[in-house]
């Protein structure tokens, strides 16, 4: 073998050695990258971002909503959307759904009155409870079968400037039972109305702190009143007033 052939073989051997060295180092880098998948970046810019599980099913989806704001959707393991956040109508909104995909909770940063709002629905997506804020907190409880309001709670009612609870019947405009603060005294008042919105019974605390009760006819006229005597020191004595159809009355007392 002459010198030229020896030199050729030496060059070929050196190339194989270098190739082996680079392949070994490249393999080490690949293994290191596989072992450490964390990537730290100051900013990631994209039009949509999906997080999937090992089977490729969506877990979290970040995208632009139909209203042009940002939106986040969270999926359960079956691939059903069960939670979402959106900026619809310029305000923050959060919705939660059951495993069938029916929305059961809605939370919004604003309501018709300008305050926050929470709606809790039944499994069919029908409103069961609505909570919102105006001058005071408001809670309305609904019959999910007939889809009508049954109970209303106000932290600051128009009448008495205090809390109020109202129970509704078939007439959704006017309640049949109202519990509130008295307009003339510091005590409470309970009124029971008929479907014609006429007061049928009233119970409360008078200005002097004693209790009273009145029973009314269907047209609102007083039939029976139970109070205390109002003659000075006799205010601790009970008194019953019975009325006729003309509004005339006679009293019944211990004396």
Walk me through the structure.
The chain has an 18-stranded antiparallel beta sheet, with no helix packed on it. Mean pLDDT is 80; it is low at 25-33. With 255 residues, the chain is mostly beta strands. Helix content is 13%, strand content 42%. A hairpin with a 5-residue loop joins β7 and β8.
SSE map:
Blueprint: H1 3-35, E1 49-52, E2 58-64, E3 70-75, E4 81-86, E5 93-97, E6 103-108, E7 117-121, E8 127-133, E9 137-143, E10 148-154, E11 164-167, E12 177-181, E13 188-193, E14 199-205, E15 211-216, E16 222-228, E17 238-243, E18 249-253
Antiparallel strand pairs: 1-2, 2-3, 3-4, 4-5, 5-6, 6-7, 7-8, 8-9, 9-10, 10-11, 11-12, 12-13, 13-14, 14-15, 15-16, 16-17, 17-18
Overall 3D shape: elongated
Rounded to an integer in angstroms, the radius of gyration calculated over CA atoms is 38 Å
What composes the largest sheet?
18 strands, antiparallel
For the terminal residues, how far apart are their CA atoms?
147 Å
Number of H/I helices: 1
- Give a count of the beta strands, DSSP E runs of length 2 or more: 18
As a percent range, the share of strand residues is 35-45%
């Amino acid at each position: 073998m002459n010198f030229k052939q020896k030199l050729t073989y030496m060059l070929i051997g050196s190339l194989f050695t270098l190739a082996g060295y680079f392949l070994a180092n490249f393999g080490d880098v690949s293994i290191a990258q596989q072992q450490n998948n964390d990537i730290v970046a100051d900013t990631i810019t994209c039009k949509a971002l999906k997080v999937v599980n090992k089977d490729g099913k969506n877990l979290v989806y970040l995208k632009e909503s139909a209203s042009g704001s940002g939106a986040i959707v969270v999926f359960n393991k079956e691939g059903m959307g069960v939670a979402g956040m959106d900026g619809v109508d310029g305000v923050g909104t959060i919705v939660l759904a059951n495993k069938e995909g029916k929305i059961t909770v809605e939370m919004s940063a604003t309501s018709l009155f300008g305050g926050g709002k929470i709606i809790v629905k039944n499994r069919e997506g029908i409103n069961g409870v609505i909570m919102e804020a105006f001058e005071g907190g408001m809670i309305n409880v609904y019959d999910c079968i007939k889809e009508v309001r049954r109970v209303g709670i106000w932290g600051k009612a128009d009448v008495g400037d205090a809390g109020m609870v109202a129970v509704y019947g078939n007439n959704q405009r006017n309640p049949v039972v109202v519990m509130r603060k008295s307009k003339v005294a510091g005590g409470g008042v309970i009124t029971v109305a008929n479907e014609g919105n006429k007061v049928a019974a009233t119970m409360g605390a008078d200005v002097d702190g004693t209790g009273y009760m009145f029973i009314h006819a269907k047209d609102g006229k007083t039939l029976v009143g139970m109070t205390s005597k109002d003659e000075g020191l006799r205010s601790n004595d009970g008194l019953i007033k019975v009325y006729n159809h003309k509004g005339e009355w006679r009293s019944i007392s211990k004396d």
